[in-house]
Design goal:
Length: 131
């Protein structure tokens, strides 16, 4: 018996998707909102879409962006880790992807040293259990 070939490592990428969300540990962050930026790389097999040239045969990055914005502007959470995890869960639930890498940055946080952003990068696979 021949072992199955590994799945392709094809990806679509969304970089620099911006939104205002009411997330953070401080009352003013949750009240006034903060600027966030998300980067997502979604792994799936693109060969069918490459041959058919049909949107229905791929992962629609417009729909991916809409999902990220819906989650980002939705339920208020305290940490970027929690928000990134909620985004990853939604993408794995709504799209036929194998794995993803998601970076989430809180822009211009009120910290000494005035960093441009702080954030987290997470990796999730469909095979992972509950997150």
């Amino acid at each position: 018996m021949t072992p199955a070939a590994p799945p392709p490592r094809d990806r679509i990428n969304i970089r620099g998707l911006k939104f205002v969300g009411h997330h953070g540990c401080f009352d003013y962050e949750r009240r006034d909102g903060c600027r966030f930026e998300v980067h997502a790389s979604l792994q799936f097999d693109t060969r069918l879409a490459a041959h058919s040239d049909l949107l229905r045969d791929t992962v629609d990055y417009g729909a991916v962006a809409a999902t990220l914005l819906r989650v980002g502007k939705g339920e208020s959470v305290h940490t970027v880790e929690r928000l990134a995890n909620l985004m990853a869960d939604a993408l794995l639930h709504e799209f036929p992807i194998v794995a993803l890498e998601l970076g989430l940055e809180k822009c211009q946080p009120a910290l000494d040293g005035e960093p441009d952003s702080v954030g987290v990068t997470i990796h999730r696979r469909r095979l992972d259990g509950p997150t």
